[in-house]
Each structure stands twice: as C-alpha cells, then as structure tokens.
Write a structure and sequence with these properties.
Elements lengths: L8 E7 L1 E2 L2 E2 L4 E5 L4 E5 L6 H8 L7 E6 L2 E2 L5 H6 E4 L11 H11 L5 H11 L15 H13 L5 E5 L7 H16 L3 E5 L3 H7 L2 E4 L6 E3 L1 H10 L2
Parallel strand pairs: 5-10, 5-11, 8-9, 9-10
Antiparallel strand pairs: 1-4, 1-6, 2-3, 6-7, 11-12
Helix pairs in contact: 3-4, 6-7
This protein binds adenosine-5'-triphosphate (ATP).
InterPro entries: AAA+_ATPase, ABC_transporter-like_ATP-bd, ABC_transporter-like_CS, ABC_Transporter_VariousFunc, P-loop_NTPase
Pfam families: ABC_tran (PF00005)
GO molecular function: ATP binding; ATP hydrolysis activity
Amino acid sequence: MSVKKQPVLETRALRVGYAEAPVCAPVDLAVRPGELWAIIGPNGSGKSTLLRALLGVLAPLSGKVLAFGRDVDERERDFRAKVVGILDDDAYFPGLTAREHLVLTARGHGVAGAGEVVDQLLDRFGLAAQSGAMPTELSSGQRRRLLLAAGFARPREVLVLDEPEQRLDPGMRADLARILVEEAGRGAAVVFATHDPELVERTGARGLLVGDDECLRLGHQAALDALARVR
Ligand SMILES: Nc1ncnc2c1ncn2[C@@H]1O[C@H](COP(=O)(O)OP(=O)(O)OP(=O)(O)O)[C@@H](O)[C@H]1O
C-alpha cells in the first residue's frame, strides 16, 4: 500500500483579497511532492492574488497557508531555500548581464558549481547567445526566459509560477512543459496559473478552478474541459 506524502504546500479555508474584500471563494488545497497543479479561471478571478498568498507576499484575509506544515513566511531562510516563486512583477538588476544575473542568483542561494549550472540554464532557456546582454538589450520573450531561468537557478522543492507561458514562442512553451514535468519527476511540487490549454495538457496537471462561488479541485481532464470553457 502506498502512503500518501505530506503536503508541501497547503491552504485551509484561505481567503485572499485586498482591503478586506475577498477576490474569490475560499481555497482548500493540498499540494504534495511530485504534483503539478494548474490554477485556472477567467481574467480577474484571483489566480495571481492566490499565488501571492501562497508565496507569503500577500497576507491572507483569513484562513491559512502552510509550507512544509508551517505558516508561510517569505523572510524565513528555510522557506526561501525551498520555495521559488516566479511572478510577473519580478525586477532585474539593470547593471548585470543575463549570465551575471543568473550567477548572482545561484551563488546567493548557495548553489554549488554556480557557473556550470548557469551555463546549462542559459542553454536550456535558449539564452546562450544572449549571455552577455543586459536586460534592456533583450526582447520581451528573452527577458521572460531570463526570469524563468533565474527561478531555476535556485534550490527548490516547490515552484510557484504565474502564467509562465507568457510571451514565450511555441518552441519554448513546449520546452517549458517538459521542464515542469521534469521538476515534478524529481519530486518538486509545481503550481502554475495559466490560460494555456497546451501547457496543462502537456504537463498532465490537475487543476484548481478559481471562482466567486467556489474554488474547485479538478482532475486533469476536468481541468482541461474547464479551461476550454473559461471566458
Ligand atoms: N493590488 C491590488 N489592489 C486591489 N485590487 C487588486 C490588486 N491586484 C488585483 N486586484 C483585483 O483583484 C482581482 C483579482 O486579480 P488577479 O490579478 O488575482 O486575477 P487573475 O485571475 O490573476 O487575472 P488574469 O487572468 O487577468 O491574470 C481583480 O478584480 C483585480 O482587479
């Protein structure tokens, strides 16, 4: 008999929103190692707000967010060593090249052999030719690739991504799906908000449909069906 692993990320009757006003129904979710979860729902339904609460960037209105069984605190070293968030509002260091950016991130998080890891990431995210470029010299899609690569330059057991497919070309989108599946394959938990049915299909993710009346946990096919109806 297989024993279910403990959740690495969990919400209990979680209410998220702004100025005391919730943006969606309460969320009950348990994310275990090796699981992929797609957070889906129409524009403005609350997906990014939920992700921000999962990452401890936004305090819950009520209810709980737990990472590894403890209240989420983004300032805690252990949390930062295990949980990586890739949101849309991340900033770049304007004076650093793409490669320097990634090396700084990897070294800052104590990654062994940072230079080698970074060179692999530059290849993986199709940025080898841009390794010496400043962020301002990158296209918007290349900047997006750099943002993603920076997330993967860190140690991680949980990955939270907000619409990671944004601005990527079809080839990189397909690569991204493979990368996320590999992450789950080595035991990481992956949670990503998305509007992209192909990303959900390729990753085999289950889904959380965010709504005003309820937030529904769905299996893979039901998540795909729900995504097709989202508008
Ligand atoms: N900083 C903020 N202050 C107040 N309200 C906000 C703030 N950010 C977002 N909202 C509101 O919260 C609601 C949910 O926004 P959120 O960005 O979480 O939606 P989303 O599901 O991620 O949308 P999309 O699919 O467009 O990315 C929206 O009505 C939005 O206007």
